[in-house]
Predict the structure.
Amino acid sequence: MSDKKLKPAPLANEGLSPDERGLFCDAAPREYEPAKGVIEDFYNWARAESLWILGFGTGCGAIELRPLMTSRFDMYRYGIQARPTPRQSCVFVIGGYASVKTLKRIVRSYEQMMGPKFVVALGSCTINGGMYWDSYNTIKRIDQYIPVDVYITGCMPRPEALLAGFQELKKIIKAGKGEGQNIYARDFAWYKANQKQIIKNWDMPDYNW
Amino acid sequence: MNELATRLAARYGARGWHDQRADLATIVLDADRLRDALAYLRDQEGYRHLSFATAIDNIERGVFTLVYTLRSHDKGHSLIVHADIDRQKPVVDSIHLLWAQAWTYQREMKEWYGIDFPGSPRVDEEFVLEGWEGPPMMRRDFDSLAYSDATYAERPGRATSDPARHMKEQLYPEAAE
């Protein structure tokens, strides 16, 4: 293969036992290579019009996704729907505060999602800790651990605010500026160092793909 | 109910019976007779249901106060049993043989307060935390803010408004300093 030279060094996967290491991928994430010109524009339009969110309620903010799904706010009219698995979803809604235990699952799910993928961080807690600013077990800003495309402020944000946030995300994607996945691949070492600093019992592969 | 107080006092040195409500009372026991007293309450007095067990960090007195809430469904009465243990040597008899569910509470107390229950199943495993390396975090001498500041990255520019001060500035700007 011609692109073999470009491959970054394999990951160490030190969190796994030696017999487990062979079972997991040791490749680092790579940046997305966009198609040329209008073709990529077309792709971005298609991506923006079918946002499939991961049905993983990571904090209390996930409660706001329920009215969004049902008839009053009805996110389906914008092409947004929830999927039960990270493999089928492209938008990760971080629902408010993230404890260290949840952060581990957030990282794992985020890495398992198909690219191009986007993160909507909801509520004050994801921005600066919110009311959990002095908690022993809650991180204070999510963008140290995964890249964030759109923040929605509020504690809690109303469903209308979420819809506005999704509209904002659509604009970003259509403009081709949904760069989260590429940032993650580019600064992978920095993100990984931050994650491992907080998650002490790292017993999963370095890149969960 | 005061007959029960008398019997507990005679058998186990219980003291300080206090009626919180008609169907709720508290009583204080010594920790070394706790297990026997709880067994007696369960088997002889009809308090068959352990509905809650936790600990309180009474750091001013240098003790952890264990709290066991028992319920007698026959009498329709709850009894809360308090027992102090030394904060420096927090080891208590396990009661998982009296109530099987107690080991969950005991695991919780081990992780949160560092109170040991020798022989309790899985008491040394982590309960709600994962990979926690700090001191037991529900102890009152654990400084949550200092730990948080040292551990988690912060976004600069966070401002806090104390509601009392804010309203004072709004209503009485000349008095606010």
